[in-house]
Write a structure and sequence with these properties.
alpha+beta; globular; 314 residues; 14 strands
Length: 314
């Protein structure tokens, strides 16, 4: 038996154990825009019945959804977001923000959101509530927290499902391919914390070298990272602007993971805002009134994607 592999303790890793799956993200997206029943989820996501059923069971087991009986004869159920599920709203908004900035626009749904607090159509903004400034990865520093350590890398077996997002016409197609792939997100976590060489990322993530090589190549092809040559025939991976702008997604996943999966000792990471070194207090705020946005404070209009034009016969 091979010795166990260990991964650096991280609330992002714990969050990705729940949501680091493309099919799960498509289901959560469908829930945010009104799906409750199995047939509604299937119509919105396009997932196969067996796969959809399995992912809904996982989300119920993780206390993200609750399964509620709405008809006794015949027995029929619907799936409702729990408090824990609703707390994924800020990560979802940051995914939507990244998609709008960097995703390809063709064939996707559009969402027009209005904040009840100010009555205006808004964009979500990652903000530090301590100082009111928009958060950028370049302005945040970190130190080890009381919960830092190493834990066994108990990766559950999941097939790569980028094709599920590629075939979808939802709100977050491109970003779901990154967040829905735990290994890709863990690589980005490593690079954001200053680990840029292949061997450093390998030790930090404990993933198989062939998987690491494939994900690094894929993230490079997506324009999220780039290879940078160093003296002595060495190289490292650096974030592009597109990759740097993914930081708020990881930040909100970290905050969610800290809330629901933190160790008794405390959070593994402590974040400081470089402006004056104060504790970072992340939130998603309204671009118009600068107030935090919550699901019950937002109304939205879904604009269905225009059908893709068919190619004329040769």
């Amino acid at each position: 038996m091979s010795p166990p592999k260990f991964i650096r303790t991280c609330s992002i890793w714990r969050a990705l154990e729940v949501v680091g799956d493309t099919s799960v993200l498509l289901i959560l997206e469908a829930a945010w825009i009104g799906a409750r029943r199995f047939d509604q989820f299937r119509a919105r996501t396009g997932l196969l019945q067996t796969l959809l059923s399995d992912r809904l069971k996982r989300l119920v087991a993780a206390d993200v959804f609750e399964k509620v009986l709405y008809s006794e004869s015949p027995p029929r159920f619907e799936y409702r977001l729990t408090r824990k599920g609703r707390d994924l709203y800020w990560p979802a908004l940051m995914m939507l923000r990244w998609e709008r900035r960097w995703g390809t626009p063709d064939g996707k749904l559009q969402l027009r959101m209005r904040h009840r607090t100010c009555g205006k159509v808004f964009e979500p903004v990652p903000t530090c509530l301590k100082c009111g400034d928009e958060i950028s990865a370049r302005d945040v520093d970190w130190t080890e927290g009381p919960g830092v350590g190493w834990m066994s890398a108990r990766y559950s077996r999941r097939r790569q499902q980028r094709h599920a997002a590629e075939a979808a016409s939802g709100l977050m197609v491109d970003v779901a391919q990154i967040t829905g792939d735990r290994w890709a997100s863990l690589i980005l976590r490593s690079i954001f914390t200053g680990l840029r060489r292949f061997d450093e990322i390998h030790r930090d993530t404990a993933m198989a070298t062939n998987i690491l090589s494939e994900r690094l190549s894929w993230l490079t092809a997506q324009g999220v990272i780039r290879a940078h040559e160093l003296p002595g025939r060495r190289s490292e991976y650096r974030l592009t602007e597109k990759g740097i702008d993914y930081y708020p997604v990881l930040l909100m996943l970290l905050q969610w993971g800290d809330k629901y999966y933190v160790s008794p000792e405390g959070p593994p990471l402590l974040l400081r805002h470089k402006a004056d070194g104060h504790d970072l207090e992340p939130a998603v705020t309204c671009s118009c009134c600068s107030q935090p946005v919550e699901p019950h404070d937002v109304t939205f209009e879904v604009i269905e994607a225009a059908p893709k034009p068919e190619l004329a016969p040769a």
